[in-house]
Amino acid sequence: MSDDWNLAARKGFLSTPPAAEADAELIARLRGAYSTVFERSLAKRAADLIEALQAERDAAAKDAETGRAILARVYAGAALYCDDGEMQDNREPPFIDFKRDSFDDIREAMMRRAAIAAKL
Fold it and tell me: Which residues face 88 on adjacent strands?
């Protein structure tokens, strides 16, 4: 078998050093092209993921805004101050701003009001 190999090498059927260099250059170009395609694919997937996350965040913000509006209307009723987009209950301290206060602050204010009412 090694005689066949040697004969093929002498006849020029095997890659000679210049052809091997050309093969290496082709392989390097293919790797570069593949890397570029792969990076573009990753960038596209990342952009799609960011877009989806932003859509989810926007939907969650809208849901939170709707929840705040429902809570404000149910809790404060006709006493709810809604002028100029406000959502405030200023009937008695602690005052509640349903639009700007955190949910924890709203809950705490409601609990304090309930505790004050229970003492009466």
Answer: 81, 97
pLDDT attached to residue 4: 60
- From residue 97, alpha-carbon distances to 55, 82, 108, 112, 117 in Å are 27, 10, 12, 15, 20
Residue 119, pLDDT > 60, answer: yes
Instruction: Sketch the domain layout of the chain as residue ranges.
Output: 14-119
Token look-up 């570069």 returns 32
User: What per-residue confidence (pLDDT) applies to 34?
Assistant: 79
Rg (CA), the chain: 36
Single-letter residue type at 39: E
119 vs 115: CA distance, rounded Å: 6
